[in-house]
Amino acid sequence: MAASSSFATPVSLGAPRRAWLTDLPVLLVAVVWGASYLAAKGITTTHTVIAVLVLRFAVVLPVLVVAGWARLRALSAAQWRGAGTLGLILGGIFLLETYGVVHTSATNAGLIISLTMIFTPLAEAAVTRVGPPRAFLGAAALSVAGVVLLTQGAGFTTPSLGDLLMLLAALARTVHVLAMSRIKAVRSADSLSLTTVQLGSAVAVFAVIAAFPGTGASPWAVALDFGPREWAGLLFLSVFCTLFAFFVQMWAVRRTSPSRVSLLLGTEPLWAAAAGIAIAGDRPGLLGLAGAILVLAGTSWGRRAAGRDAG
């Protein structure tokens, strides 16, 4: 979806300010998503993946339904179908990411998921038949190079099933961002209603999977076993990393380009490293710090390139 004309008016003093009004909330989403790795690690095991996903989405869903009931009833059948489709994609993303992290190293996961920064502008170019600017591709490549340095401290492992799942998750993220901008029916609906339907579709997918034997502990059993620390982590994942994140993403992608949103969200590994340093005591070393600088530089460069191209 094309960005607003404010990005294409370099002589307007208000244009950069308006651009940041859209970009800053998206950047905050990347920050909370980066912190979500530590939060999820503290409350999830290999046997509770599905249960935690059900709880994460179900906690906020009743609040959304009550708050937006009138607007939900006003949605057309096409809008319900569009938002439901986005929810199915969203559910697939979380399943792929969660199981992928379980079956691969954090280093490989962080690197592979960052490839969304490359996949999105290429996919958008294929759909619109308009090639991305060379500066944008260069900025994305610079950011990925930064992620390589940022995540290489633990060393790389032999490609595994988890690596493939994370690669599929990166592709699914690209599909999700593009779908939000390309499904015409959802463009005219309010973000709260679309977010509610989307999350409802995702939690339905997780609930169906949880009903099958052999998929791990039940959501009810996991909820009863949680203490205050686990519930605090779950609420952080639910309210900030889910509700806030996807509301902002749907709001922003209709005001700027999918590539611009994806590039900003691509700083997630940087914030994950920052959370690890500040909270878990990780030490990235000189190469890791150099990688962080490259991610920031690439993101800044890409924002400018996307802004010029939007005009």
UniProtKB/TrEMBL annotation:
The keyword Chloroplast does not apply. InterPro entries: Diverse_Substrate_Transporter, EamA_dom, EmrE-like. The chain crosses the membrane at residues 20-40, 46-70, 82-102, 108-128, 135-155, 161-180, 192-212, 232-251, 263-280, 286-302. Keywords: Cell membrane, Membrane, Transmembrane, Transmembrane helix. Its main location: membrane. It is a multi-pass membrane protein. It is found in: Cell membrane. Residues 24-151, 161-299 form the EamA domain. PANTHER family: EAMA DOMAIN-CONTAINING PROTEIN, OS03G0707200 PROTEIN-RELATED. This is DMT family transporter.
